[in-house]
């Protein structure tokens, strides 16, 4: 123990010093470090878990010294992983998992460093956790033999220069802001005219980002086209203030420089131009589009003043996509110009109207339309002003001249005459879509196919902007998800930070290990994480329904409004895959249309349900103590560390265990999938003996007694068998 303590402490300190010198070649260090983590894993397993050592009076001092050395090594290992190069996404996911686990362990161990109050069981748990981290690091480092020329700070954020200063921020971790924290974090941010988000919100996790000199960072952005005059800005958070920083697009990422920040988000904006308007008059010509001219006559303003001009070029690809995917909501504005913002001092009086000359992009002649001016006020509201007197410029064909006596955001377009008289609100709503104030979205509900093959009902709900719906569905299908038939919601108008709450009804209940924060989505248009993934537990419904219901509510200032509900026949969708034939004429859940659910089928258990198949029933009846239900109960009684150790004892390949852990699922699901990976499709009595032997190897005598008793009684494991374990997650599918 003393030797391992000295080795880990010295190697950790030396490695930390070398890693902070970015110019040094650290590739020769990888092989000895690889072997060190392997040796530490074996050392913890065969030496540190010795019963006599743990129960001795000197255990606290010995383990405290060993923990100090391991902490130093782990701090260096976390930085080392940021320097390593991985070629495939699976290895990158494993690296992220190990980094997160190391950061969590270092944080927990630093808080509870006083080991003198630890019991023998707590010391054993800590050693098992250290052993698993060492083994995870061993398998992760072994997948690389090269280093990066930058530091990966997490979730695609890279620190690239200056190289001599990267060591000072190598300990920093960036994470995409959790959905539940978005609204609170962004409450103080102010967007300029026409600015919109083009990245997710990135949050500094743990230690603050702080450097003596500015560090060049690159962050991923939302893949959308930018108009020619758009500029990229980065808003960084320092305390309660958000500060604008210049940014550039390089190789599909936003590059910017910063020395201190707690969070940041990338926005696209438009450059303002300032001109002085005197009583003699002035003609402004836009630097971004020379066809846009504004003529201020003599004595237009009551006094000389500085006027700000900002041209907002609308994203034409967005307009065409919306007209194609949402024809009912986007049919009243046939064509529209860009938006010019004109701002002046509040105390200036306008004596004479100005003459505005603007082009309408993709102008068309249609007798059913009328020229209108969209005026966007400072409070964000939009006014619709008919301008039939606007004169067309004959030389250009698509430019118009009109007078205006109130300045703010101005755009010229052609709108349907009938709607101008009957429903102006629909035209204004369509303008807000093009201006990117609002977004038309769809809530989709999917099931995880790989989990269904193990009998776990796991839902994936996502709020998707409607113009990206087909692309997202194709991507989710590649990830093993498929859409529940008839579950797609009608169109939902969303703004950034609008909240949709998810509620379960019918015979589906929430997993108790997941907090209530997990069941809502705070929408952000530029994020790729507007989804929630959650398993469910079947329950006895008070109304006797055999159908699960997912309700979607939009949160408002007063009473939440139900915007959609999905009905799922969990009996039929419980198992899926080629090994279990489930195809028949009625293998569909009840349809959900326009917020109404048809209960004509599925209110009674189907005689041809998947639960009645021989292949499914065999999962529960062949060896009851190893059934699907029993393993789920056992998974809830194990911690993730002991489930990992148990999987190793059961000869589950550690690569497979690491793959399962890298999926970042709730612990009970991760534990279950490790056990199910060992069990396979067919269980036997010999496997019960193997499980008992493995539990004996990891010192879990209490679990051995429970399993042997249930096996002798030829019954399933029950939650009551582990009732004195408060962290036991009640999550099981009752057999038919």
TrEMBL record:
<feature type="region of interest" description="Disordered">
    <location>
        <begin position="579"/>
        <end position="604"/>
    </location>
</feature>
<protein>
    <recommendedName>
        <fullName>Death domain-containing protein</fullName>
    </recommendedName>
</protein>
